[in-house]
Specification:
Strand order of the largest sheet of chain A: 1-4
Strand content of chain B: 15-25%
Distance between the termini of chain A: 23 Å
Oligomer: heterodimer
CATH architecture of chain A: Orthogonal Bundle
Number of helices of chain B: 17
Radius of gyration of chain B: 25 Å
Number of domains of chain B: 2
CATH topology of the largest domain in chain B: Rossmann fold
CATH superfamily of the largest domain in chain B: P-loop containing nucleotide triphosphate hydrolases
Shape of chain B: globular
Structural class of chain A: mainly alpha
Shape of chain A: globular
CATH topology of chain A: ABC transporter involved in vitamin B12 uptake, BtuC
Largest sheet of chain B: 7 strands, mixed
Strand content of chain A: under 5%
Distance between the termini of chain B: 58 Å
Number of strands of chain B: 20
Number of strands of chain A: 4
Helix content of chain B: 25-40%
Number of helices of chain A: 12
Largest interface: A-B, 30 and 41 residues
CATH architecture of the largest domain in chain B: 3-Layer(aba) Sandwich
Helix content of chain A: over 70%
Radius of gyration of chain A: 22 Å
Order of helices and strands of chain A: EHHHHHHEHHHEHHHE
Chain lengths: ~350, ~500
Amino acid sequence: MIKFRLEERAKSPYWLIILSPFIAILVAIILAGILIVLAGANPFESYYQLIIGAFGSKNSFAETLARATPIILTGLAASIAFRAKFWNIGAEGQLYFGALATTLFGTGLVVLPSILMIPFLFIMGALAGGLLLLPLVLLKLYYKVDEVVTTLLLNFVVVLLVSYLLEGPWKDPMSLGWPQGKSVIDDGALPQILSKTRLHLGFIISIFFAFSVWFILSKTVIGYRIKSVGLNAAAASHAGVPIFKTVLIVALLSGGMAGMAGVTETAGLKGYLTLDLSPGFGYAGIAVAMLANLNPIGVIFSGVFLASIYVGADAMSRAMNVPTYLADVIVALTVLCILLSLVFVHYKILFFGVKKND
Amino acid sequence: MTTLLKVEKITKKFGDFYANDQISFEVNKSEVLAILGENGAGKTTLMNILFGHYTPDAGTVNFEGHAIEFGNTNNAIKLGIGMVHQHFTLAENLTVLENIIIGRQSIFSLSLPKRQARVKILELSKKFGLPIDPDELVANLSVSEKQRIEILKTLFLDCKLLILDEPTAALTPQETDALFSTIRNMIETGLSVILISHKLNEILAVSDRIIVLRNGSSVGEIDTHAADREKIAEMIVGKKIDYPQKKKIPRKSKVFSLVDVSYNKTDAPKLSKVNLDLYSGQILGIAGVAGNGQTTLAKILSGHFKPTQGKIVFNKAKRVHTSPKSFMDLGVAYIPEDRNSDGIVGDMEIWENAIMTEMDDSYLRNSLGIINKKASFGRSENLCETYDVRMQSIRQRSRLLSGGNVQKLLLGRWLMRKPKIIIACQPTRGLDEGAIASIQNLLLKAQQNGSAIILISEDLDELLTMSDDISVMYKGMLSDPIETSSTDKLSIGLRMAGDGFL
């Protein structure tokens, strides 16, 4: 039997930090390949189809980036919150709240020229997402109510609220009976940025916010406070860091990012609110943030990666006749492998008897 | 005398840093060997190598003639080496008995062989004078009782060499005496003990031989009966220690008063009707057995808790909002009791910790809230130099600093602000002689510059050398201050036990 133990590294080498997510992804792909074999397909051909499906043509590439848009925003939402150890699992609900705000303000209630209308919708979406989180963060700060529970459960409440509105008062009479909201007015719709594809301005906006969040977290006092609160709130408070204010800002920023993901989907991809607006983008954001090790710039790449798996898996499943659920398996395995790879980044493995001192 | 343990030329590097550099020593049967050294001298690293937590880069260790397999704790235990860590490793929700036998069973075994274990444990308990109740939950035990369990755990595994890492750090004087008589009992039955400590008096009282480590190297070995306290202290620090010299200065204006302050919530020990006046240039010592409300008082004085009754009157300030920040702005500096969990953010870099209190300073940030890194680095370098915080780089993670350097960083951070009031809770607890002297000198210098200081300490020697006046806390009550020159250890000790309180 091989015996081994872990020893903490004094300092992790840079090449290992950079290489480790790629190795983790590779391992995840190999493991998922075993499942593809079990599903009766050739894994190499399947992965080829997956890559072609995600990046093989202008259209598929655009589709991947369009899919990445909301995931990058929810990934940012999770990154900000998790850095402060504020466990916001409610990005899904905040996304839908942002979508509700878009529908409320963007379908005729407010009419502005496009150059103002689009920022206005994003602000409203961000506010809606932030406001949804506000009572929960106050419950946490005043009464120590665990935010994991409240944010998670509120997701279901919000989805039911959306369902009620779309089946009832907000149902578009022109929708031939489908439960969907009215269309966002033309001046509010996010323009296409690549002709004959579904890729819209929202993608650029999400990249812009990734850089903004990176700037806030690494260069400003508020980012520094968020870091200190996340790493040791007691010590930060003793040094005069305002904990209450910092956690509040974290919640508003995090909820705001997720709310804007609702805007990009409602005003960008679909043009109107539907019940299946988000197939779990809020939860995908958590995986994206973990993959990126909570780095906002990394979130862009991990968001595109996740989107490519989902988009590519559809193509793979059509071409190879394997279940499309393999996408979920690959994503889940990747997250697990990344978490495991962090162990190797921070620890050395020592095998007994390999290193003799004599 | 037979040699039990023989350590030869052990070297362990972390990066470029030599934690242990060619250390050699022996432990004989029935002997207490003390390993002395400042924090960061390499004591704990060395013990972790012996016990199989670390693998050294070079060197050998022989135990009863067998070479130790490095990096294998089970092997160390099997040979008969037991270790009691400074921080206990007990499962709070299990009983004493379960804690002692757990971890030695296969995880697949469905039941624990409790009956035989109980007999053996009670036997050991009697033999070594370590009274325990095997069925008590560990969560209900005091610190010294938990330590007894840790010692019994190693004895249960038939250890021949017991390593005790800073065993008295959290014990009262009486508990320390009890521990030492246990150690003597063990020696008489043929066990050997390695005692790691930085408390000179204790080492001189209980050990047979002393080894001094400094900066990772062994700098000397002495038989305890031939040892001289001051000489060892200098060996440890490597230079003459500048012991603090108290100078009294005339007190000027009153900086604040507490008027009938009470605290009656369940989250901390209560306070009842505390009255206190503090003057600039005064050091008021507060003595008391831990848990009598000193921490609550400190938290009220630093703006963390709001008194349930009574008020705090600051000189000149009209209304005071209860928050650490607004107290800071009134000139209060607070040195928390637990510097690692409440003082420093271990995973942030030294410079980030150094500027944490200074985020309103327009020199370090612009009006948009963007941090000026160059200015911040400069400020941090300056702080570390002024207050002698020894580090490799200000970009280093703060958790790698030794306790003394953490405390110098925290105290220096406050002193840079020229505080009017310093609330120092156990500022020198767990530090070595050199660091204690530096911290005490820094506090005395602050007093000379006009700061008013409240010194909360369990170390009576410290209170008597540092304070102008001493008050005693007992069950949430605070006695009137007594001038230090007109009191002594004995009478303070009596007050700490409740004498003179209603």
